[in-house]
Amino acid sequence: MGEFIGRPFYSCRNCRNPVALRADLLSKSFIGRSGPAYLFSHAMKIALGEKEEKQLITGLYNVADVYCKSCGEVLGWKYIRAYDAANRFKEGKFIIEQMKVAKEY
User: Fold this and answer.
1) In the beta sheet, which residues pair with residue 46?
2) Residues 6+ apart with CB under 8 A from 35
3) Is residue 37 a contact partner of residue 98, using CB atoms and an 8 Å limit?
4) pLDDT higher for 7 or 22?
């Protein structure tokens, strides 16, 4: 984790694998499966599950689950496609649930 010295980041709470940089955090005002969630522009050291259509609170989306590449923990999902024009800003971005990650400094 030497490459993150002086750069705040978020890591998998289960195994401490770094999954997102604080600089890529776009919003803390999202809701995931287990409660509050973050919206990130980028994520790292993750694996994506199968793409699937899901009806979420704000509409219909094509999403893929996001897994920690180290331990396999489900961390959230990636927005692949938003069918509503008002939500297209989410496309390509990541929802990571707050209870699945820890802040590191």
Assistant:
1) 68
2) 97, 98, 99
3) yes
4) 22
